[in-house]
Fold this sequence. Notes:
Layout: E1 6-10, H1 20-28, E2 32-38, H2 50-69, E3 74-78, H3 81-92, E4 96-100, H4 107-119, E5 123-127, H5 149-158, H6 201-206, H7 211-225, H8 244-248, H9 254-261, H10 267-292, H11 315-323, H12 329-341, H13 346-359, H14 364-374, H15 382-391, H16 406-413, H17 418-423, H18 439-458
Helix pairs in contact: 3-4, 5-10, 12-13, 13-15, 14-15
Amino acid sequence: xxxxxxxxxxxxxxxxxxxxxxxxxxxxxxxxxxxxxxxxxxxxxxxxxxxxxxxxxxxxxxxxxxxxxxxxxxxxxxxxxxxxxxxxxxxxxxxxxxxxxxxxxxxxxxxxxxxxxxxxxxxxxxxxxxxxxxxxxxxxxxxxxxxxxxxxxxxxxxxxxxxxxxxxxxxxxxxxxxxxxxxxxxxxxxxxxxxxxxxxxxxxxxxxxxxxxxxxxxxxxxxxxxxxxxxxxxxxxxxxxxxxxxxxxxxxxxxxxxxxxxxxxxxxxxxxxxxxxxxxxxxxxxxxxxxxxxxxxxxxxxxxxxxxxxxxxxxxxxxxxxxxxxxxxxxxxxxxxxxxxxxxxxxxxxxxxxxxxxxxxxxxxxxxxxxxxxxxxxxxxxxxxxxxxxxxxxxxxxxxxxxxxxxxxxxxxxxxxxxxxxxxxxxxxxxxxxxxxxxxxxxxxxxxxxxxxxxxxxx
Length: 459
């Protein structure tokens, strides 16, 4: 008797190497349908921002080619998972459904679907694929989640070594069908790419979405960036990995990164390896926070921050921040880099976020939403957790009195002005605007506002 078809439901794991769900389906035997579902309807689903939509189009295009080379087809559907997945099961007579886990609010959707499909007699399995350590396995001695990064990462390093990456299937038995039943919708019909206007020229220049682009980016970093990683805080040099969008869409797994960095490295790269792996650890920490508080994009992790007196943003001031016209050169350089390339250097991210939340007293959620729309690596865990870290409202947050001074930061990390001149060419001309805020006076105002939080906590 022939084995019934299997469905592999892809989400943030758009790769064929080290994809446990895909491996399980191939090992089960029989035909395999590889599905990507654009789900913006399930409870807890957050529609993608513009830059992420651009990336998704490129990533799915590349994935379809990789699958076709191995004999499979990428099926596309849109709608709520609780409706679409059971309908596809019935359509093809599937006997098994496999997926890799997610860790935010949508895991409730997954749990309900798993229960329903199993009740219908299907084999349903989920796998760990996007994190080195499952969030529920790294806890304090009392069994609680860590709230501080350093002991969290120490516990991770003391845990079992992460598993080795799985190889890509040599071949995949696609489902032989009549007509176009599995064609579903077309990628073009989703209109993921910007057209009116087409603002993605800088993104196309900077990035190659897809698994091949991810592997190339990793190798480039290992050979060229990791030996310079001790200078990672300098935005004017290429010392960071820029792997974040590839990890966000799962074109590369953290297990692949971990294994590669455990492999042959130049001596200078070996010296910088622990620090880079700790940055992978911050991604793990952010997902641990998300797992235990799925609402981190909208609710303060530290609930005493609910009392913070955020100011209603002046539209002109907010637009100046968004467009890189604040009159503060390092901030403007970062915001223009973001708009052009869909990415911003990490230290500069902290500085622009500090200006918004502390000098301008604008709610961190407004900044998080802007980054969600404009970053190619807009990640449901890291984006919100990082904004809360800077604002002072998150787990292991920067102390509220730590207000990044963008002038001093520029003097320290961009001393020759390379980064600022690249992104703000009119810097020394009359066309450059005056600062929209007095940094010293606004820092004083921010600290006064924080007293409201401290008073609420005491009372």
